[in-house]
Write a structure and sequence with these properties.
- It is a single chain.
- The protein is an alpha+beta fold.
- It has one domain: Jelly Rolls (Sandwich).
- 35% of the residues lie in helices and 26% in strands.
- The chain has 4 helices and 8 strands.
- It has a 4-stranded antiparallel sheet.
- Helix 3 packs across helix 4.
- The two termini are 26 Å apart.
- This is Cyclic nucleotide-binding domain-containing protein.
- It comes from Streptomyces iconiensis.
């Protein structure tokens, strides 16, 4: 999983500062919904402290937790790719402090600085790959042939 140094560490100091200048500090209380599945993906976060869960709606079942995002990790990647719609929901699992970025501003920066854009895209793609692998494993645990019938988060 990408950490702050991993996600931003690939950028030159000047690029990193240009990107960070677009961010602002935000916080979420435990239990706060950060975004909803199907909503417009118009921002993203790098978590400083706390953790968030990623969940998905499963028809006929309660929403299931697919993954956890922790300190230093990127929360939200759908802002980078059309149609800019969240395919999961997110909720603060514990109090969260994060750097929040406006997606459109970052996409404009990536268009203006193609080297920054390519590096950032590769870092986000790495996050996507990691998250898809973990999500796949979680879904197999939840819905595979030997999965428990109770699909509530944390059920054994």
């Amino acid at each position: 999983m990408q950490t702050i140094s991993g996600l931003l560490g690939e950028l030159t100091p000047e690029q990193r500062e240009r990107l960070r200048a677009l961010g602002h500090e935000v916080s979420f209380d435990a239990g706060d919904r950060i975004f909803e599945e199907g909503g417009r993906a118009d921002r993203f976060w790098i978590l400083h402290t706390g953790s968030a869960t990623l969940d998905m709606h499963v028809p006929g079942h309660r929403d299931v937790v697919i993954d956890h995002v922790r300190h230093g990790e990127l929360l939200g990647w759908h802002w980078m790719f059309k149609p800019y719609v969240w395919t999961l929901g997110a909720q603060a699992e514990s109090p969260v402090r994060a750097l929040e970025f406006d997606a459109k501003s970052v996409r404009v920066l990536c268009d203006e600085d193609l080297e920054l854009g390519l590096t950032l895209t590769r870092a986000v793609a790495s996050t996507i790959g990691d998250r898809l692998q973990r999500s796949r494993a979680r879904l197999i645990d939840l819905f595979g042939p030997y999965a428990p019938r109770d699909h509530t988060p944390g059920a054994v």
